[in-house]
């Protein structure tokens, strides 16, 4: 079975409080971004993981695809599988690429082996693999709370909006990024702010990580300014960075933006 785990963007992100489990509570809108990896899951004589595309730091034994398999194999009798992941979504980008691989692996294994799992149950497995993972089970725009894994539906007329994402070749570790942010109550009501015209979002829809990380990594501010200069209606850091995106509603495609060597650019539509 071949699946294409997609990335996500965060529209606004407030880090709102410290949790007893050491994590933070947050408030953010997650939307699927069709920048995709490819993941193939095939029954095989023995378990195997092969990797191509962008290099993934760390021991392949701890790859989130393998961890997804191990989680289900602890509860169900699964035959060995060959997992092949072709990595295209940059890592440490705030795009949730690794989390998507994990969630899509859970969904693919469940479907391939006809496991009796509902979407709610798959979300529960996904939560155990990472805060961002549960979103990718249903993969629909949501307002996310708590660790970013408790959802409310949100209706956003964004489908088809031209979008440009720029990854400045900077791996920002999620844990490090959280350590730099001080939790505070949300400055605005995200649902209300996002219901207003997109041109007003820059006044109210902010990402706490952007404020904390831009002084450290000025390139993040430069990319945001470049996207606004190119005519973006809204531009922001995604998640804990380092990818910065711009939205260009009403355009066929996002315009060209000059970027440095080593930056990765994704152009497409939401
Ligand atoms: C920044 C976001 O991408 C926004 O969508 C997510 O909150 C990150 O989610 P993620 O990459 O799935 O993060 P996890 O793998 O669960 O956690 C990585 C580390 O980030 C910190 N972390 C993560 C999520 C959260 N709500 N509070 C935290 O403090 C913790 O230090 C944790 O050890
Ligand atoms: N399939 C995978 N894809 C990417 N990273 C993976 C994967 N499996 C395990 N990892 C580990 O997760 C780390 C990346 O996590 P990190 O949260 O920093 O970035 P991310 O996947 O881009 O998501 P985000 O920044 O949105 O949280 C990598 O350093 C790598 O060791």
TrEMBL record:
**Which gene is annotated as encoding this protein in its UniProt record?**
ispE
For this chain, the family text in UniProt reads:
Belongs to the GHMP kinase family. IspE subfamily.
Classification from the root reads: Bacteria, Pseudomonadati, Bacteroidota, Cytophagia, Cytophagales
Protein's name in the database:
4-diphosphocytidyl-2-C-methyl-D-erythritol kinase
Q: In this protein, which residues make up the domain named GHMP kinase C-terminal?
A: 199-257
Q: What's the source species for this entry? A: Hymenobacter algoricola
Give the E.C. number(s). Answer: 2.7.1.148
Keywords in UniProt for this one? ATP-binding, Isoprene biosynthesis, Kinase, Nucleotide-binding, Transferase
What does the function comment of this entry state? Catalyzes the phosphorylation of the position 2 hydroxy group of 4-diphosphocytidyl-2C-methyl-D-erythritol.
What residues form the catalytic site here?
A: 8, 132
Query: Domain named GHMP kinase N-terminal: which ranges?
Result: 63-137
| Pathway connected to this protein | Isoprenoid biosynthesis; isopentenyl diphosphate biosynthesis via DXP pathway; isopentenyl diphosphate from 1-deoxy-D-xylulose 5-phosphate: step 3/6
Enzyme class, spelled out: transferase
Q: Does the keyword Transferase apply?
A: yes
Q: What InterPro entries does this protein's entry cite?
A: GHMP_kinase_C_dom (IPR013750), GHMP_kinase_C_sf (IPR036554), GHMP_kinase_N_dom (IPR006204), IspE (IPR004424), Ribosomal_Su5_D2-typ_SF (IPR020568), Ribsml_uS5_D2-typ_fold_subgr (IPR014721)
Alphabetized GO MF terms: kinase activity
> What catalytic reaction does the record list?
4-CDP-2-C-methyl-D-erythritol + ATP = 4-CDP-2-C-methyl-D-erythritol 2-phosphate + ADP + H(+)
Q: Where does ATP bind?
A: 90-100
